[in-house]
Amino acid sequence: QSALAQPASVSGSPGQSITISCTGTSSDVGGYNYVSWYQQHPGKAPKLMIYEVSNRPSGVPDRFSGSKSGNTASLTISGLQAEDEADYYCSSYTSSNTPLVVFGGGTKLTVL
Amino acid sequence: QITLKESGPTLVKPTQTLTLTCTFSGFSLSTSGVGVGWIRQPPGKALEWLALIYWDDDKRYSPSLKSRLTITKDTSKNQVVLTMTNMDPVDTATYYCAHFPPNAYDGDYWGQGTLVTVSS
């Protein structure tokens, strides 16, 4: 069982927007602004898409945005494109008995 | 340009010790705040954070695996080594190393990963 809870799957049509949630506790997501989101295509390494809740690394399209409310963080992808189909993982710094970082269980995004 | 690459055996037997090496370029592990971490992913499953070593040799481990893990660094060789003892088939996974920038807890650059299978 992963430390952070994510829906197993979400789907959307091209051009639409989707949101993936990531629920933790006050010891991780809710307590710190160190939530990250990764995109992983099959057979590839994860790619950082959002860091520190809402910041995008250079080169990540502004269609990707992050936010947080209480113990739940969210990744929103607007203007869905076929290449967005992938697995998405959230992670957070945690202060509870280490480890330093905890991951979510991952969400499979299907672009219909 | 930051790059990382994992190397090590692709097959280990149960009870054996796994040694993986992460060789990196484009940054120095003597730079204040920088870290290198290891993350694994069993086939078809989620990512799992294993360990991280910082520039000042501060080391952090996953509590559930702490007794089996050791992480070390060789700054002169630009390498980080992870050893995991008493390997079991459930440890079959792709093992990744990643660069952690100063004052951050996200891996901004990842290696390609190496699949390790545990089987007799």
Number of strands of chain B: 11
The residue-averaged pLDDT of chain B reads 96
**Alpha plus pi helix count of chain B:** 0
Question: Poorly predicted ranges of chain A (pLDDT <50, ≥5 residues)?
Answer: none
End-to-end separation of chain A in angstroms reads 29 Å
Specify the oligomeric state: heterodimer
Give the helix/strand layout:
The complex is a heterodimer of chains A (112) and B (120).
Chain A lengths: L8 E4 L5 E6 L11 E6 L6 E4 L13 E6 L2 E6 L8 E8 L7 E3 L3 E5 L1
Parallel strand pairs in A: 1-9
Antiparallel strand pairs in A: 2-6, 3-4, 3-7, 5-6, 7-8, 7-9
Chain B lengths: L2 E5 L3 E2 L5 E8 L9 E7 L6 E7 L4 E3 L7 E6 L4 E6 L8 E8 L8 E2 L3 E5 L2
Parallel strand pairs in B: 2-11
Antiparallel strand pairs in B: 1-3, 3-8, 4-5, 4-9, 5-6, 7-8, 9-10, 9-11
Describe the structure.
- The complex is a heterodimer of chains A (112) and B (120).
- Chain A is 0% helix and 43% strand.
- In chain A, strands 1, 3, 4, 7, 8 and 9 form a 6-stranded mixed sheet that branches.
- By secondary structure, chain A is mainly β.
- Chain A is built from no helices and 9 strands.
- Chain A has strands at residues 9-12, 18-23, 35-40, 47-50, 64-69, 72-77, 86-93, 101-103, 107-111.
- Helix content of chain B is 0%, strand content 49%.
- Chain B is an all-beta fold and 120 residues long.
- Chain B is globular and about 40 Å long.
- In chain B, the strands form 2 sheets. In chain B, strands 2, 4, 5, 6, 9, 10 and 11 form a 7-stranded mixed sheet that branches. Chain B has a 4-stranded antiparallel sheet with strand order 1-3-8-7, with no helix packed on it.
- Chain A binds chain B through residues 2, 34, 36, 38, 45-48, 51-52, 57, 89, 91-93, 97-106, and chain B through 37, 39, 46-49, 52, 60-63, 96, 104-108, 110-113.
